[in-house]
Amino acid sequence: MAADLAADLTAQQLTEKHRPTLDRALEAIRTRDYWSPHPEHPKAYGENGTVSAADGKAAFDALLGSRLDLGQPGTDDWTGGEVSPFGPELGVEYPHADIDVLLPAMRAGMAAWREAGAETRALVCLEILARISARTHEFAHAVMHTSGQAFMMAFQAGGPHAQDRGLEAVAYAYEEQTRTPKTADWSKPQGKRDPLELRKTFTPVARGIALLIGCNTFPTWNGYSGLFASLATGNPVLVKPHPRAVLPLALTVKVAREVLAEAGFDPNLVALAAERPGEGIAKTLAVHPEIKIIDYTGSTAFGDWLETHARQAQVYTEKAGVNTVVIDSTGDYKGMLSNLAFSLSLYSGQMCTTPQNLLIPRDGITTDAGPRTYDEVVSDLAASVAGLLGDDARANALLGALVNPDVKARLEAAAGLGEVALASREVANPEFPDAVVRTPVIVKLDGSKPDDEAAYMSECFGPVSFAVAVDSTGDAVELLRRTVRDKGAMTVGAYTTSAETERALEEVCLEESAQLSLNLTGGVYVNQTAAFSDFHGSGGNPAANAALCDGAFVSNRFRVVEVRREA
Amino acid sequence: MAADLAADLTAQQLTEKHRPTLDRALEAIRTRDYWSPHPEHPKAYGENGTVSAADGKAAFDALLGSRLDLGQPGTDDWTGGEVSPFGPELGVEYPHADIDVLLPAMRAGMAAWREAGAETRALVCLEILARISARTHEFAHAVMHTSGQAFMMAFQAGGPHAQDRGLEAVAYAYEEQTRTPKTADWSKPQGKRDPLELRKTFTPVARGIALLIGCNTFPTWNGYSGLFASLATGNPVLVKPHPRAVLPLALTVKVAREVLAEAGFDPNLVALAAERPGEGIAKTLAVHPEIKIIDYTGSTAFGDWLETHARQAQVYTEKAGVNTVVIDSTGDYKGMLSNLAFSLSLYSGQMCTTPQNLLIPRDGITTDAGPRTYDEVVSDLAASVAGLLGDDARANALLGALVNPDVKARLEAAAGLGEVALASREVANPEFPDAVVRTPVIVKLDGSKPDDEAAYMSECFGPVSFAVAVDSTGDAVELLRRTVRDKGAMTVGAYTTSAETERALEEVCLEESAQLSLNLTGGVYVNQTAAFSDFHGSGGNPAANAALCDGAFVSNRFRVVEVRREA
Fold it and tell me: Which positions fall inside the Aldehyde dehydrogenase domain (chains A, B) (predicted)?
């Protein structure tokens, strides 16, 4: 700690409170069993220092129309303008930063943060996460009204699941930094002469200021891994949120700054860079010589731009891919249909992990309910989706709102790409009449037609799925390979009862570095990954150059400096 | 193993022979104490299956004028032309590869190599290293007559120390791949309902073909970390040696191919890409879409080119830096002088770790032998170097030969940059009359003169040191900071008796990510690092983007593919 005696949060308090959690997280990333310290159920909050549903909603409401002052140096203006995908303007104002003032201020606390060491940094990060966790209800509303996720999804994915990813990154960062001991005594025998003896010290050192470029759809879930990986390895973090999803990350920055200050560190180790409409500061910041690490989730175009131009930084990107499900055969046709229907519907397909292309042999598939033709599979799936979303209340709870007009435009255009097997329908939202809520469209395409290929080989982000007729399962496997290789994929799903086909699918995924979910028919969906156990992306295909979370995600965020002296 | 029953080397044999060594290496990289399984003394060879000095020399002699057939697919010609820096033409011919044939052949064995798993891959790598170790005498002559290192240095640095670096990389690679279990059972409670249960498998998968671009001065020492890190993580490795230092890496490839075949794997997992004079295939290979990893040691210009253009690959570079020694004060003046004299002389300063700039306050320093002026320090150091190299036999044993005419040209030009405190002298080598052997030159420069700054702020690779007069130790520390930040450094040395100065030096090295050796006066030198304990470079300043060896050096050479199924 920088100044234990003066700090409100002592090292001892942090250790008592969080060291067991850190140890359990370290165990979880090794065993990859199920674990989370962050309750998933909204009713679990309101006791033991956590904020109840009502108080969380009240806290969110109090933020609306307010100015969120973070006390940052170099604040030269105030900016805002978020409008909820559910309709209301949020009206929150955020500090706008003079970067030439803010960046040097962020560097000022680096030495003390370095000297604190890997364990204290980890424990401070855990305190930040614990305080965010306590306020999960408030964060859930913030995520809901910036991403368009329905409340329960915003609560879980934006709350505990995001916090899990942050904690997972802290655990990896801690483990990586402590692979090398702090000191070593080195004694090399020299035969009859005295041994050569050195005393060595090893210190993990930060790379410099890290930039987190947040996304619109999952501001916390996709942001926390990079934020906490960088902070835990000693780097100050500048958070540049998506202009339409500032609030969840601004609240995160606020909590981080409070905890850092209470623990005796410089709060400027974490800061917000909100921007004016159209300012486009990500490009400017990304090539700034002080920025040494970048975490980014978003479009392939800008991700590729970052990888090409931000040469002074370590760049971790999650971009777009084309996710495929191969449908060869199934022993649980009903389960398959309901599982897929849920996957296509959740958050209106606005997940980087939502399946887009469903590859189905044109001669049909075998199932436990007898053979099904291509047309039957598609119409049965359409019926399953329609059934799942037939009730408006349930549809609203699953779909949320379209995050922006681009998604709506793509959805409308998709209907013109081929025969529509399931038309998208408008769902009325009585609570938020201005929300744009749409069910998914399923379009039939022919895998061997070049015009159709142009459609299914491009990412169509949103509630759009293509039922692609292929000549055989073998063709499906090869199309899967080509899709992953050329376009990338965050997820691959497959249904088959054939051991041979299963092996062929595994082989493609191993060779092309894609994460495969096989025969999911129950309550786990291809588009969901669990921290501590599942990797999100592989980092080995064009969809992303990094995976959440592994050694590679943390190991180059710091370097180890050795000082050696004769003993 | 791919085909245990058919293989000459079974998994059981490999485990019995090498698993204890792997375990000890894993312990060493955690404790960073002194350890090596590779004997440093030439006399230690000749028993227990190792090759004696005489037999090793005979094996080397038998290679001269021969054609080294590796049995590689796509061999379309033969090429060679190495001339020893000590004079003789080697006359060895190597296969020239048709890359369009060789690269696909290298991919053919990848699936079996992946399926073998991390442990078997590690054990096969250890067998390769063990066979190289047994033939250390032969490799020593090969390194000597391609690098110009004197025999003892070629023996130690090119033999056991290089093998140590290879083994260290294997240990890191093994540890990194086994951080994630092969399988996991995941069970998520669902309250009163049945838990969600998944069976998950995790497989480390290669990125693709790795390219090792070898260097002239340390073909094995600088090559083995990358070669073995890539191979142990499942990647085929194409070895592109420096055209003047092919033999040590060609022999390495030959051994690797033999072991792979004996263990039942495809020998084409390791192959050589020797080139015709002036062919420049590194540039072609580096941007080839099949090349996914590049390890490079050499000039900053080409290293920067690789980092900029080889965007399809993970690029690990060791480039050039400007190494500094700050001389503030010492409690062992004699020891300091003799230690520095050795560091400047070893291999005629042709190490990426040799100090170039000696920063000395112009008002002099304090020592245990009383105060010494700047002029006195410089002349005392000159006398120490002259004394160390006064005897021709000893000089030859320390200096070796200049590796190429460029080094000689730089050495000669350096004498015109300032006042010469110690002139370089020609040393006759009775055994190799054509060898170009030169003692180091020490040139006095003024830290505050812009013309001098142009000299000392550029890397002058070879036996050239600048004694730079600075206004104060504080100025030296700031010049050190600027040098590391702008030019990079593989090493920093310093002599001081002041705790405050020591702290300031450490702070600069921590902030600029440089490896610091303090007050070395005995038998350890700033330009030497020991595998398993010392990091070579930091990867955090412009001299190199990677360090030998750490988690970051191995963690992105593979990805983990997860397959999950309902349990």
Answer: 97-482
